Amino acid sequence: MSFTRRQLGGLALGALAARAQQGERKIGYAMVGLGRISMQHLAPGLKASKTARVTALVSGHREKAEKMAAEYGIPAKNIYSYQNYDAIAENKDIDAVYVALPNSMHAEYTIRAAKAGKHVLCEKPMATTVADAQAMIDACRQANRQLMIAYRCQFEPTTLRARELVRSGKLGKIQAIESANGFNIRAGEWRLNMKLAGGGPLMDMGIYSLNACRFLTGEEPANIQASWSVVDGDGRFNEVEENLAWTMKFPSGTVVSCNTTYGADMPGFYRVHGSKGIMHVEPAFGYEGLRLMARVQGEPAIDEPNLQKDPLQFTREADHLAESILRGGELRASGEEGMRDMKIMMEIYRACGRRVG
User: What secondary structure letter does DSSP report for 202?
Assistant: First the structure.
């Protein structure tokens, strides 16, 4: 009896699910890139997971990888360099990879992971060009592997509560949304390099506002206008924008105004104005300390601080992919979701006259 690649993949997933239900193993993640977000947030988050764990490391710095391996009980055979990365195909301890590299490297390491038969959790933005994003989707589809983009906010309670208030109609018809997110970046950061980052704060911080507005409303923008500027002539912004502002109009008539910056501390927030009430979430995009406040006509004021601590958001997003691998089901933050943001960000750049990939 012969099987197609898809059928074999299905059999493998079924076997994984059966073993997990018997308590024999968890989904194994390889950390690709041992920077702050992977080793200070995602990896600690996996320590609290019931469905996943860190089983391998990929780094260009062997000494650093060995130190991390000792902390997580990872054997030396499960430490890889970028040169022998493709050898993960032979390692049964690895079911998925977490790609936490500079933006322009996401496509290469996602595609190589798919060809090695591994599922992928990729940081946002998923790529620096629409073409690369499509190549990532195609590679994972051809390999019958899952591709998830790390939109951790889509899994945490404050964001889900905000979406419920918007979509339930409790705030009435949504008239306008305002959002902002940014920080004052240090000189020398790779995010200031156009080749590595693909853009400035829009790609890094503005994407939170963009995705939040789409996630809250369930709508896609029908009209986009934008402008950018460089205020600080200190050499940091020779390649990428310092500030960017844009507006969007959704098909319902809701108008959206967003700002992002690398030139000032700009705590992430969003404010939703409805015909029956107003909702304000701030902080909105951090790892902990989120807070939702709302006033609805004829009802007591809502004030809901989120007391959950970092790295629980990372636990949730990693568990979502692990559970999808084990039991099937549609991913909430799929490659297609990442692609939608990529296309809109390219439209924003075109609208303000910035060159795009």
Answer: I
